[in-house]
């Protein structure tokens, strides 16, 4: 309601100002109406500019302003050096100077707008105290940040809307990075590097907020409360968080489910060439892996440990942890076929 009143006030001020300016130039009714319309048009353009500026990061706006100032300074230097003594000469028309200042100012503005993202201000972090609402927000979980694949997904542009990173997630990452356990410390540092990489991506809007829920102790529960408040979705690869969030009506984007969905489809009966890397749980089984990490369990494949063999897919099992493929040796299939040829199942003997 407050924003509507302010915008209405802007239209009234611009309209009335335009009317009186036009009446001062020519005190006729048509000119006054034209001035009123021009004032309303100026107010509308101002609101459009406001909407556009909201989408531009602060560092980009700062870079654009610096570029604009430098462009004007450059135009002034060029005019004083190359056109010295001719500024008041009637042979040098004013539009030439306007063209010079316009080109230099526009060039500086565009370069500053693009290079503004490269500014580094020590101790400055883009924090937001007021949580955004009614937007297509995505909230990053600690596990998916450490995983790192979300950075590649955001870089491709498949994730729409701003990425929201609460301060308690940053605190958890910092705690992991400071752990005495070298494995946890490495994972924490990787998560911080992934966040830094996402922030540097030009087309990704990353927002860090200080919102916390002191009454809630667990980080996963805080994420769910935050998602409820901003009407956003949680990006994670934690199956437990996925189940709890869905039970409470929160939409979840699971990176593991996405990875399983885009894996090549494998059908029973297909031939594959795999390398047996270790033995399976059952007697005689061998285990191999595809390039995407999919596990292949091969019957009677244990004796080919460390060798590359041909197998035939018998079945595919989809589990919450991923996809498993069961196969058997191709040579066993050929042996069975030859056995059926000499001893047909439907023989009358």
Quick summary of this structure?
With about 350 residues, the chain is α/β, with parallel strands linked by helices. The chain has helices at about 1-25, 30-55, 60-80, 95-115, 140-145, 150-155, 165-175, 180-200, 220-230, 240-245, 255-260, 330-340; strands at about 125-130, 140, 165, 205-210, 235, 250-255, 270-275, 280, 285-290, 295-300, 310-320, 320-330.
Fill in the keyword field for this structure.
349 residues; alpha/beta; Rossmann fold; 4 domains; 12 helices; elongated
Please outline the helices and strands.
Blueprint: H1 2-25, H2 29-54, H3 58-82, H4 94-115, E1 127-128, E2 138-140, H5 142-147, H6 149-156, E3 163-166, H7 167-177, H8 182-200, E4 206-209, H9 219-230, E5 233-236, H10 239-247, E6 252-254, H11 255-261, E7 271-275, E8 278-279, E9 286-289, E10 295-299, E11 308-319, E12 322-329, H12 330-342
Helix pairs in contact: 1-2, 3-4, 7-8
